[in-house]
Design a protein that fits this description.
The complex is a heterodimer of chains A (334) and B (289).
Chain A (H helix, E strand, L loop, with lengths): L31 H34 L21 H7 L4 H34 L7 H8 L1 H4 L2 H11 L6 H9 L14 H26 L4 H9 L4 H12 L1 H17 L2 H7 L10 H11 L3 H34 L1
Chain B lengths: L14 H28 L4 H5 L12 H9 L2 H32 L5 H10 L5 H19 L7 H25 L3 H9 L4 H12 L1 H17 L2 H6 L7 H4 L11 H34 L2
The chains are: A mainly alpha (334), B mainly alpha (289).
């Protein structure tokens, strides 16, 4: 890489490719033109190689495995596992059989969890970003504090919430039962139906600052003149928010909502730190579910098939979403 | 340069707006800070107190948990592991992203769009999809070449550096695009090669974006749980997995858990807060446009 830089003291301007003789020692016989053509590919090469190794090849391997009966027995040499065709998929989508039923259940749980978490994160992030657009005393400090949940390592944050949700010793029940007397007993939060809501709360807590951050960045791209013109026309603050701020944030929101959706849908860390390897039935998110069916029951083929189905679903959602949002943008332009 | 957030209308704000702001922001502040307070206050209680009903104000303040955390589990060892893995992943990831983004931003070539689409779409893959294949590939590479990837820090570094790569490239391309091409054209006229232009002009002008990407990459690696729990062993375990060991069969040392959580969070949060200005600037120029 270092040899690519030519002598910096070259005096003549514009002689970049015109001196093959002078640089022959450094780059023998590679025509300047070819070098120029290959340069972008060389720049991309490391990124491409890493993406291939960690994302693309494993994905292909994953798809191959999903057609195999890969169990613990074949783990040393997965290539020798028998082909089973679409068997893994058939089992996964048979919604009247236990495996298919459980998968479908965790799929719906994940959808509900994702929609709620994204909606609240987006709402809170938008409110905070808009309310903090103008300067006021303490704004910088507040902004820094609001970003703390995003900066905290996931496990540290989620462990703390797990502690707060403990039935006997946690803050949540202490406040609800001992202090506010809202509940007659101390409910469980990490088992049973409440676990779903506990999961949503924790997810919103750590996701909304990202929405806040992205929207704050988006707000900076709104030209100030727009507000000044609106103020001249007699529009109040609320009207300015409705007519200028929110519409201007649309392009940011289109990316933000998609990113939040994908991150939340694929989130493994939160449920895993909260519940461990086996989540309660009501909060059995799909990533944990697949993890469990591959690494606990050692049925990798089936787990891979579920992952591929999940990927197909995400691809579909993304495609539909991009289509819808880009069409809307086209309408606005016309 | 990090820009100071723009102010909106210069006109006076109505009381309804000011009051909404006060109420909403106060509630949010409480929502954000309660867990942080719980972490801090519980880390200074003794074991008896965290095993009883929750106390807002610790009855007996003690710093004992901060001494004990290092003895109960090999926390320092895990800390070093996390540090090595996260710093290496960050440095490599950002270097790779700088080259790739420069290529995408400054050159038009066949396959350019395909590259960006491919790299970006890997963001949407569920981690669980390639956890197992990657595990198998690492085991196979280990068996056939003798390079230990599974269970080693190297394997984790390579894995993590690709996690932050798509977002980093995306953000840096946007940032590089916002730097006028005339600048590096001028550098080339002055005798710089493409690399010279990159390192003498583009990179210095894109420092906020690069800092933002570093912060993001480091946080991604420092906080990752899934791959760390499958691809590490006793000696390479990171904090993400190690903290679980405070829970024994009989007891969870909650005060120590909270102390350890605080200790592992402080470096990241401090760094993040110091550099958050850059992150907003980086997002403004890169991701949002």
């Amino acid at each position: 890489m270092a040899a690519t830089a030519p002598p910096r003291s070259a005096p003549e301007a514009g002689s970049d490719s015109g001196k093959p003789a002078g640089r022959g020692r450094l780059r023998p016989r590679i025509p300047a033109r070819l070098r120029q053509l290959s340069l972008p590919y060389l720049l991309l090469l490391p990124a491409l190689a890493l993406e291939l190794l960690i994302h693309i090849v494993p994905m292909i391997v994953g798809i191959v495995i999903s057609f195999k009966g890969l169990t613990l027995f074949f783990i040393r040499n997965w290539k020798s596992a028998p082909w089973t065709g679409f068997d893994n998929y058939k089992v996964a989508v048979k919604i009247h059989q236990p495996i298919g039923q459980a998968l479908l259940h965790s799929f719906w749980v994940t959808i509900a969890f994702t929609v709620l978490s994204v909606a609240f994160s987006w709402l809170i992030g938008t409110a905070a970003a808009i309310l903090m657009q103008d300067t006021f005393r303490g704004r910088a400090v507040l902004r820094a504090i609001f970003l703390v949940p995003y900066a905290l390592p996931v496990y540290a944050a989620v462990i703390t919430w797990t502690f707060m949700f403990q039935q006997e010793t946690g803050l949540v029940n202490h406040v609800l039962h001992d202090q506010l007397h809202l509940t007659s007993d101390k409910p469980f939060w990490l088992i049973g139906g409440n676990s779903f809501w506990a999961l949503v709360i924790v997810s919103v807590w750590k996701s909304w600052p990202f929405a806040f951050l992205a929207l704050m960045a988006g707000l900076q791209n709104i030209p100030r003149e727009l507000y000044e013109a609106a103020a001249m026309d007699g529009a109040g603050v609320w009207q300015q928010i409705r007519k200028i701020t929110l519409p201007s944030l649309r392009p940011v929101n289109q990316v933000l909502v998609l990113v939040l959706f994908l991150w939340t849908f694929n989130d493994f860390n939160t449920p895993y730190v909260m519940f461990g390897q086996a989540a309660p039935h009501q909060a059995d998110l799909i990533s944990i579910h697949i993890y469990q069916s591959s690494f606990i029951t050692w049925n990798f083929g089936s787990g891979s098939a579920m992952s591929v189905l999940l990927l197909l679903f995400l691809l579909l959602v993304t495609a539909v979403y991009l289509l819808l949002t880009s069409r809307k943008r086209g309408d606005a332009d016309a | 340069m990090p820009r100071i957030p723009s102010q909106r209308s210069p006109m006076a704000q109505p009381r309804s707006f000011v009051w909404t702001r006060r109420v909403v922001l106060t509630l949010l502040l409480a929502f954000v800070l309660v867990p942080v307070y719980v972490m801090l206050s519980s880390s200074m209680k003794n074991l008896q107190d965290v095993q009883g009903s929750f106390q807002w104000i610790p009855h007996h303040l003690t710093l004992r948990p901060y001494v004990d955390i290092w003895k109960t589990i090999p926390l320092a060892h895990y800390f070093v592991n996390s540090l090595i893995v996260s710093v290496s992943a960050t440095l490599f990831s950002v270097a790779v992203a700088i080259f790739a983004s420069y290529g995408v931003s400054r050159y038009r070539f066949p396959g350019r769009r395909l590259f960006t689409v491919t790299v970006l779409s890997t963001q949407m893959f569920p981690g669980i999809l390639f956890l197992l294949p990657l595990y198998l590939i690492f085991v196979n590479i280990g068996n056939s070449t003798g390079i230990t990837l599974n269970g080693s820090r190297l394997g984790l570094i390579i894995t993590y550096l690709t996690f932050s790569l798509p977002f980093s490239i995306w953000m840096l391309v946007g940032y590089f695009d916002s730097i006028p091409r005339d600048l590096d054209e001028a550098a080339k006229v002055d005798g710089c090669g493409p690399m010279g232009a990159l390192f003498r002009v583009v990179v210095p002008a894109a420092v906020p974006g690069i800092v933002a990407v570093c912060v993001y990459a480091f946080m991604t690696a420092w906080g990752e749980v899934l791959f760390a729990s499958v691809m590490t062993n006793q000696s390479t375990r990171t904090l993400a997995v190690g903290l679980r060991e405070y829970a024994t069969q009989n007891d969870v040392y909650w005060n120590q858990v909270m102390a350890a959580s605080l200790v592992v969070s402080v470096p990241v949060v401090a760094g993040f807060l110091l550099l958050q200005r850059y992150l907003v600037a980086g997002l403004t120029a890169g991701a949002v446009k």
